[in-house]
Every structure is written in C-alpha cells, then in structure tokens.
Amino acid sequence: MDGFAAIDFTLAREVLQRGIAAVYVVAFLSTAAQFRALLGEDGLLPAPRLLEWVRSGSRARRRMLHPTVFRWWAYTDRRLLAVCGAGGVVAAALVCGLPQLGPPWVPMLCFLFVWLAYMSVVSLGQTFYGFGWEMLLLEAGFLAAFLGSADQPPPTVVIVLFWWLLFRLEFGAGMIKIRGGREWRDLSALTYHHETQPLPGPLSRQAHLLPRWFHELEVIGNHFSQLVVPWFLFAPLLGVWIPWPGFAWIGTIAGAIVIATQLWLVATGNFAWLNVLTIVLGFSAVSVPGSGSPADVPLYWLLITGAVAVLYVVLSWPALRNLAARRQLMNASFNRWNLANAYGAFGTVTKRRIEWVIEGTEATDPDDPHAVWLEYGFRGKPGEVRRIPPQVAPYHLRLDWLMWFLPLGRSLEDWFTHFVVRLLEADPRMLRLLRRDPFDGRRPAWVRVHAYHYRFTTRAEHRRTGAVWHRTFEGVVLDPLRAPASR
C-alpha cells in the first residue's frame, strides 16, 4: 500500500465489488417479492399514502423523506417492479464483473445507480425497512462505486474508508453491548440468544444446547472480535511510512477474525444479509502481496476519490462522536444519503421467546367448543413445534421479522391489524408471503391471535417426541375477529 494505490488489495476489491453487488441482487429480489403486499398501492402501509403525507406537509416534513425517485415519478406497483428489475440487472452485471472491464467511471456509475435505486425503495419502506442492514448495504454500495476498474489497483483512500465502515459496524455493535444489558457483562447473553433471536436457523437449537461454559466463551470471543480486533484493521496504514510487511499481515488477521466470527453467526441464525455483507467487508482488510501491479491512475480518478475521502471526513464526525457518547445511538443515519452511519445490534438480549400464533376457523360460532382452529404457517417464524427452523438468510423475510418484534411489550400496530384483516379476506398477495394457508385460499369466518412461550426442547424431549420446540399458552392477544362483508 502506498499513498494512492492499494496494490496488494486487488483481491479485496474483487470480493467487495462482486460481493456487495450480489447482496444488492438479493435485496432487489426480496423487494420485488414482498414490497407490493406490504407497502404497495394496496399494502399494509401503502407507500403512496406516505408520499402524499410528505408532499402535503412542511419543508421539514419533506426533508424527513430520504431521496427517492418516487418523489418525482409517481409510485405504482409496476414502477416499483421496474426499479427492482433495473437495479437487479445492473447489480448482476457487477457480480459478473462486466462494468469493471471498462474505465473506472463505468463501475462507478453502475454502483451509484443501484445505490440510488435501492435508496428509492428504502425511503418508502417505513417499519418494514427499518433495519440496520439496509443502511449498511446503501453505504457499502456507495463506497464500492469508487473502487475502480480491473486494469488498475484500488485507491488507498477507498480501501481505508471500507475499514472505517467495518470499524463502525463492529466496534459500534461491541459498545452497544457493553453499555446495554447486564447479560453481556456477566457473560450470560448467549445462553438465551440462540433460542430467542428473531429467526433461528437449523443449527440454533444445537448451539443453544451447548454447555454454559461454551456460551461464556462465545461472549468473550464476541467482545474480543468487536472491541479489540477492529482497531487492528488500520495497521497496514503504518506500512505507508514504516517498511515492515508485518503491518499488512496484522490487518489481514484482523479481517480474518471478523470473517470467522461472522461465519459462526451465519451458521447459528438468520440475520438477513447482515452477516454475509460483514464477511464481504471483512475482506477489505485482506492483502495478498504481489497480487497487483502499479499502474497509471487517471488524474480525474484521483480527484474523485480524494473528494470522496474529504466528504467522509466531514460526514463522519457525528458517527465518531456517537461511538463515544454515553447514550449511543444504534443504527442511526445522520444525513439524508445514508452515509457514515452509526451501527449496532442486540444491546440487550430477550430472555423468553413469545410468539404470536394466528389461527382461523370456518365455524360460524367462534365459541363453539367443537370449532376447528387451524394455524397459519410462516416461512421463517417458529410455529409448528416439530418443524426445524429453516435457513433463509441472506434472504430477508420482512413480515416474519416484524412478527418477532410485536410481543416485546408493544401494543397492536396498525400494520398488524391490517394484516389480520387481509387474512380474513384471503388476500392472495398476502397469502403468498406465508408458508402455509390452512384454508387453501378460502376465506375463514374468524381469525384469532394467541401468545405462546416457545423454548427449544431438551435432547431427551426431542428423542421422546421428535419436537424441536416446546410451547405453552401465555394468553389471548386478539379475540376472534369476524371477516368483513366486503372491503
């Protein structure tokens, strides 16, 4: 690495460009499949209604909305699909490395296009897009635009900006935990987390059943990888002034530790594309000596990447100050462009898993003791006790994730009430988001919601019953609701 060209980070550039673009493909596919039912013209939280609310308000209200093409190009579900299709095609081309064969401004324009296209979606996403990995993908896509082309080494300043992104992501998450629940300080957090995380995976139960001492080591390892390791990502910078190759290896080892810890999270949970994208970012610290060669970098490219670096110095001050703040913000954006954000997750860990189970019946009298109540099945959310949690990440099941938040002390939210009504109407678009419709497209007469406490079965219980979960009734969330005569 020298002052302008990160010669030994060619592999890092390849992984960053193609990996980030691949996550964009997944994000656009997820949006195309789910956005219309959740947020479309006839969705649970219609995007056109949000746009109208913004347009009819004050200037301050209008500035609350992040940039989106739908502010000027009236939203329709077809136009949403057009944006997803165009963004997905360009992102797929970047995965294949086609724009990278041209001059550096070609991949730059392609990445900026997918960044703006996806920001147009996220800006309308409301609670269904209120996750930290949405901001992370947007920021990573913006930085990837300035990694350059295949015929020249990546710019040093951009590689360093990726380290700064990874530092904020990991160190921010570590500080949120240390400042958060006591369970992270007494090392008990992961005795609960594998069981109570939003969407467990196929190996989550096995991880949960590991001995207490192993879970304590997990927490210690988490603190080390998030609070100590991120500082060493910047070690290669010392090599610019001190000619010792060990600095580059220190950075590579730091990146490898981040990658290894994220692989464990991939194996034991479903956090959409958060872990996969963090793995991709971890490769930004991996240097391969001799993998690149010096090449002439166009002056205009030096000026562009230099301007991006200056922009980030200015934008990063709020995020830097947030890391040192006693009341640290988690997953916060300090500007309308989702750049130089603050990150963090799971400052506290839920101790008990409460699931809302939705059931319907075709009986005319919901109080009839002979009425048969059938349960709706979700794609990722726990429901049937014998079903092994599926592996769905990096795909993002937005409805399932929001269902996890509902029992955490919140009242019934508007979107959930609308969701229950759509089930009563047997809305085909909504039913496609589910794994199982017990009525095969017919309208139930009544729908109710009950709360259950879920826990993983012990090994002995599993051998005896074959069940993965044990659940006990907690209470009534929503009394039987009758299907409306018409919408």
From TrEMBL:
It is found in: Endoplasmic reticulum membrane. The chain crosses the membrane at residues 20-39, 80-100, 106-124, 156-176, 248-266, 273-292, 298-320. It comes from the Bacteria. Residues 129-286 form the Lipase maturation factor 1/2 N-terminal domain. It holds the Pfam family LMF1. Keywords: Endoplasmic reticulum, Membrane, Transmembrane, Transmembrane helix. Its main location: endoplasmic reticulum. The keyword Transmembrane applies. Residues 339-476 form the Lipase maturation factor 1/2 C-terminal domain. It is a multi-pass membrane protein. The keyword Transmembrane applies. Belongs to the lipase maturation factor family. This is Lipase maturation factor family protein.
